[in-house]
Every structure is written in C-alpha cells, then in structure tokens.
Amino acid sequence: MYNDDIMHLERGLFHYPPNHFLRGYTRKPADHYYRPFYTHLYKELRSKWKVCYDGRLLALDFYSSWHRFIKYNADKCYFGFTFVTSITHDNGNYLELTDDFISDKLQKLEKSGALQNTMLVIMGDHGGRVHLATRNFDLHETLLDIVSRKMNGKREQKRGKSLFTAIPTDKSCVDNNVISNFCLCMVDGSADIGGLFLPIIGLIRKLSSLDIRMPNLFVQLGMRNKVNYTQKLNKREPAQVGDSYCFS
After folding, report:
1. Residue 6: left if φ>0, alpha if ψ -120 to 50, beta else—which one?
2. What are the residue ranges spanned by the domains of the chain?
3. What PANTHER family does this protein's entry cite (predicted)?
C-alpha cells in the first residue's frame, strides 16, 4: 500500500511539477495506490488543504485507509506506507485531534490478532529534536535486523544504528552523520565576535577613504529626484566610527 496525503495537487513524495522535475510513476507502484483519491479530493478543495471538510476531520479518512488495509491483509505478507501531511504541516498541535481515533483503531487491530507477526512503526518525518537523536537510517537498520532475524546487535551496521540496540544519549549531529543545516541540536552560548570587530572597522575606514563615484549627488543621498535636496542634505549627521566620521 502506498497512501500519501499530497496536501496540494502539485505535491507528493514522488510527484513534482513536471516542468521542473521528471514525471512520477508511469504505472502505479503498489497494489493499493491512493493518489487518484487524493488528486480528486484536492481538486474538490481547489488544491488548498483543510483540517475539516463537511464537518469531518479529513485525516480520519486518511487513517481509515491504513486501518482497512491492515485488517483485510492480516493473513498476508505486505508492506504499507501511509504518510499524512496536511493535519500537522502548519500546526503540530492538531495531531492531538487524532489521538482517540488512532488509539481505538490500534486496540481493535490488536484484539483481532491483525498485528501478529507485524511491525508497526508510527513516526514523523522530523520531530521536535528532543530526547534521543534518532534518524531514518536507524529505522532502516532496524528493518534490516528484522528481515535478517539478527536482533542481537551482531549484524554489521553502516550509517545507522538499529533501534534494537542501545541508543547513546550523548550522540551529536556529527556522530549521527547529520549535516549541520538539518540539525538543531546545538549548544546554547554567546558567539565570540571580538575577532571580527577590528577587521570590520578597518574595512569601514578603507571604504571611507575611497573616492566613490556616483552618477550624481541625488543617487549618493539615496534620493529618487531633486525634491527637497537641500533639506535632505542638511539632515545628514556625522556618526563616529572609531576615530573617523561617516555620514548616515
């Protein structure tokens, strides 16, 4: 099953505007493929997502597809991927609205036996970056542990670390192979800018000594025309920078 809440008609995990990217699948990639449902829905919504539609929380319909899939395929070997975007994309607090629904469905699946011999993972594409630092590479290694039936940590692991093993609490972004622009696990502290002060002052002095040529005085004063030129000129007040002066 591939169940991707696209949120907008031009979006999707594997669908991007064709004038900028290659087109998506030429054939459906899964037996249960929900993109036609979402494209029809978002056409009705004029490609603008909503939390509710006709008095109903839309995400509940998206989760229902996941629940029915597990229920009716309980005795089969399957892989399903459900990615719900719209309800939490702009406000993570909305996730609470689905708590009771998901809890009810999970309890029913457990009582029915549909979760026997099943690994069910509930996660986000990124979180609040609190507590333990885990990544999608760790989940990948965890899945490899399951399919290889080696959940004792003895299987060779590469970039990730299986969640069946202890996750260190002090791992940094560097330890996790997460590049800096994707990592907010930073240490609070004031930046030392003392070394930058003198070079900046030197640059200002150098610029002040240059004979900067402008098309005319009005451009130099930041004026679009000659109106109130004298008034503008008189308002220029010198400001001291180091032992030199510049006009602001």
Report:
1. alpha
2. 1-122, 194-247
3. FI08016P-RELATED, PROTEIN CBG19234
